[in-house]
Every structure is written in structure tokens, then in C-alpha cells.
Queue: 3 jobs
Job 1
Amino acid sequence: SQQGEEDPQALSIQEGENATMNCSYKTSINNLQWYRQNSGRGLVHLILIRSNEREKHSGRLRVTLDTSKKSSSLLITASRAADTASYFCATERDFGNEKLTFGTGTRLTIIP
Amino acid sequence: DAMVIQNPRYQVTQFGKPVTLSCSQTLNHNVMYWYQQKSSQAPKLLFHYYDKDFNNEADTPDNFQSRRPNTSFCFLDIRSPGLGDAAMYLCATARLAGEEQYFGPGTRLTVT
């Protein structure tokens, strides 16, 4: 069964604004990862946050994790046209599980 | 540069005609994955290898088979493609279970 669901399904913002995407999941996890996918391409890993972490930063990206609410958010600050892509969260349920379960994705469009 | 390579990028096959998709990696990663992704959907895990150990997902059709002859290569065989098998097929690798996955560019399969 699908582990994660993302909200919103689609988001359009003006270049320079911040974009926030949310991910909810159903079972306990070992880690949660965010990936970006440009149209017709493979996925690119953005950031990994472990279950004992609450916040992580990487450049213009900020990820939070609330295990009590089983949710995570991805914030992209000062958005650029090149950020236009689909963003997926993925969860590893148990340590050493070897596989990720992907969420439904958020389609982000940055309007120049 | 170390990477995950998928060939071909585009594959057209006829209904019922066997087809093989290939994936190679120069990362020397232990884990290799095959995903199926249909338009506007999340990647769906078909199976994965941890070294030589094969792990099939319960809902992967018998029509789909895989081979990993060595660390670098992994193949996806579709024995009798149906129209519903048209999709993007993504190969990914990970150094260890649960770590970030590195994706290839994907093979878009069309079934006529």
C-alpha cells in the first residue's frame, strides 16, 4: 500500500517566492527522503532526514520531520525557474529495509 | 563520472514481443532497484537486488523478470508486454539499504 501522500498535488508560484510541500505517511519510519524529478527524467536525491532528526537544511532547501504527526515538509526558498519539477517524498519503514515507498508527488511550477 | 546508465532511453516493442531493458552502474553499489512509473504517478517498486539476493514485490506480475549477472549490470525482462506495461522504467542503486538512491535517466517503453 502507498506509504506517503503529498499535498498539494500541484503548486504554481512566482519566481522568488518560497514553495512549501507536505508529505504524510502511515507507519513508523527509519528515514524520510525527498527527491526531485524533471519531466521525463530520473529522480534526483535532495535530502535525507532520519527519524531522530527534526530539521535539516541543504542550500535553499529546508526539510522538517514531525514523527508524532507522521508528516514532513519541504521548503524551497527564493524559488527559481529551474526548480520547476515534481517532488516526491519517500520513506524507509524499518532500518535495513532496503526499499523506499514513494509518495504521490507534488508538481511544482515556477512562473518566471 | 560515476553514474547509473540505462539503455535504451526509448524502446518500442510490439504487443507480446519480449523486451529487455538494461541498467549499468559505475558506483559499485550493493543494491539495485527497478521501478515502473506511469504518467503523473509515483515510482512503483518492481523488485530489487541486495548483492545477488533477489527480492520480488508481492504485486509484481510474473510477466516481469530480472537478472543481475554481476555487480554492475541489472536487466529487466518483460516476457509478453501488454499495452498496460507502457511506462517509464527507472533503475536505481544504493550503497546500502535505506540510503539515498541514485537513479538512471529511465527507459520509456511504448507497446504497440
Job 2
Amino acid sequence: QKEVEQNSGPLSVPEGAIASLNCTYSDRGSQSFFWYRQYSGKSPELIMFIYSNGDKEDGRFTAQLNKASQYVSLLIRDSQPSDSATYLCAVNTSTGNQFYFGTGTSLTVIP
Amino acid sequence: DTEVTQTPKHLVMGMTNKKSLKCEQHMGHRAMYWYKQKAKKPPELMFVYSYEKLSINESVPSRFSPECPNSSLLNLHLHALQPEDSALYLCASSQEAGGSQPQHFGDGTRLSIL
């Protein structure tokens, strides 16, 4: 079983819609969760991080964490074509030594 | 603009060459990382430095040799690389080592081995 799993997609949404990206993790002791956006040929860019159960909002982005069910999600409201990228979920290990990255979900926002 | 600066942006080298990748951050972070990323794959951790000491080496071949001269600089020395080592090499930093802090990535060095 992989430590962090994401649906690889591709996920396509029309412009203006809500894009929902999901991530599950296997290490029940994980405490820190991160979402990165990566455009093709570029490096990962930190979008959000969340440590507590519930929702955390930043502009058009909302991260949702449910530790009991071991999933974290990212919602993108009013999706724009510029949001088209691969979104990587990263989770820390219970020993706290490093991240595990998911394989990423490719998102395409259709104008 | 990223606060983690990597040079060079592109590097082409032969299998017998020796070259170095450089990374610099001025955010006062005490942890620095090297990752390797192949196309359509997530970043793969290579090395972690915490307070200028190597704390994690993910069984990386000895043809990759990291060095941390000071808290702001991280180098990756390359020697006798193989074609399969062609990839995007990413440097990242965080306030402290471990996975509890966000990591900030540089733009990467795209490495091609001939």
C-alpha cells in the first residue's frame, strides 16, 4: 500500500466550476499535510498546508482534513484555465522526518 | 520569484564529466533537501541536511555527493553519471528538518546525461 494515494486523473472541469482533488494516506500518525501545484516543466509551488481537522480557506482554495478517515482534499473555486497543472499532495511521516508525495492529479480547466 | 535559487537551470554533461549543482536560500531555514524528479512522477527525496549536517541519505548512489558549506548553501556534486540520471533536480528548504514544516522549492536544474 502506498503511503499517499491520489487519483492521477486527468480531471477536467469547465471554467468557473469547483475542482475537487482528493488524497488519502496510510500513516495514521501523520500530522502535517501540504498541497503543491506544479506546472509542466516547472518546480512544485506550495499552495496550502493544514494541520488540524476541518477546513482551511485561502482565497479560492480550501483544504479539508479528516484524520479519522485519513484523507485530505483541495477545493478550487471559480476554476481558471491558469489552474491547469498537476497537484501534489504531501504528508509527513509519523516519525516527522520527511514528506511522502502522492503521484499527483492532473487538472485541466476548460475555457 | 522563488526564494530558493538553483544554478544552473540546465546542464548537459557526458558520463565522464564532473559537475556541481548549487542551491542557495536566504530565508534563515535550517533544513535543506535535494530531490530528483522524473517526468510525470512525484519528487523523490535524495538527501536531507539539518543544521548543516546530513541527516537522511535515501540510499543514493555514490556518484551523487552532497555538500552543505553553510546554512544558506547546498551543493550536489556529480561524477560518472548514467543516462538514467537525467531528470529535474530540485532543491528545497524548510525552517526545520522533518515533514512538519512546509518545504519551499527552487526552480530546479534540468540535467541531461549524454
Job 3
Amino acid sequence: AQTVTQSQPEMSVQEAETVTLSCTYDTSENNYYLFWYKQPPSRQMILVIRQEAYKQQNATENRFSVNFQKAAKSFSLKISDSQLGDTAMYFCAFMKPRGGLYAGGTSYGKLTFGQGTILTVHP
Amino acid sequence: ETGVTQTPRHLVMGMTNKKSLKCEQHLGHNAMYWYKQSAKKPLELMFVYSLEERVENNSVPSRFSPECPNSSHLFLHLHTLQPEDSALYLCASSLQGQGDEQYFGPGTRLTVT
């Protein structure tokens, strides 16, 4: 079974500064997907960024980027130029590739989440 | 934020009540999920419906009963709940074959008294 660990229950950062959230995972799979989700105080979970394990290039979405270290099974999220709207709970998640039913796999992608990191951006 | 909607947003119910949570997705997806989010615990997957068939039931007690009448709607019927069932219940949907990214609703905050 896959496990996802976020070792930082809470983090804080000053507006405009950079912060890095840590995530490690455990799997025997070679191909998989990793995600960072953001859950603001309004509670709607939003996808921030996605990484395919077979891609060596780190994913980037505007101010959000990841440092994917496959051998170390590490997937950290860097937020540059932090904004007040970045205040939220951040979840790291792992997804095993979806296999066809006839291949013995599942017909959907099953997400395994970490415990979450509460990020507070201070003015 | 209107791609996946959930009603009600807040629900308080007694242990002998029967209530239902509703989820609707407007994204053309074909898989829907129920998650339970409790304080200081990772999100727990409860049920998955793929193409309107239940494909996963993660050892969820029978007092939770899901229903998926079509690919756009998902219900969670609740009866004789326990106080420890109080949590945020999140619905999500995804489109298989498109990276399986899940899109979440705003959740229903359930309090069992």
C-alpha cells in the first residue's frame, strides 16, 4: 500500500517570500502521479500542480513549482512570491496509474493523501 | 468553483435521523467519489463510482449508503449515525483517461449530536 507523509503540520511565511512544503511517499510502483492540492478556509479543494513520475522535468505552474526526487521519493512544493490568498491547507497526494479492468487494475485513479500542511501567509 | 456542487453545506442531525447528502458535477466526468475529512487525519476515501457502478467501498459502515443514479449525481444516505461520524464530507469527480485529476466540491460539514 502507498503512504504519503507530510512532516510539517504548520508553516508560516511573510508575504512576497518563498516557502517550501515537504512531502515524501512510499511505493513500489515505477510509474505514478503526484499532486498538490490546496484547501483554503472556504474549504473547496483545488488542484495546484501535477507531476508524472516518468517525467524528469519538474512541473511548474506560475508561482508554484515542485522538486521531484524520484529516487528519494520526495515531492516538495515551492511557492514563490507568497500572497495572502495562498493561506490554506496543502495536501500532497499519490495516484497509482489506472489500469484496465481486464489487466487486473482499477478503472479509476485512486488518490492517497498526506495529512496536510497548514500554510499561513502573513502581511 | 461551480464544477462540483454539494448540498447542504452544513448539516446537524441526531443519531436517529435519516438524511442525505447530494453531489452534482457539471464537468462531464464519469467517475465520482465520496471522501471523509476529519480533523488531523488524512482524507479517507469512502466510495467510488465509475460509470455509475460502485467500484470501491472502503470498509465503510452500512449506516452510510451511497447512490449514483447517473454520471452527474451522487448521493450519500445517512442513518443512525454516531457522533464520531461528524466530519467534512467531500465529493469529487474525474474523467478517466484524462490524467484522472479529481475535482472537488466544497463539502458538507456534518455534525451528529
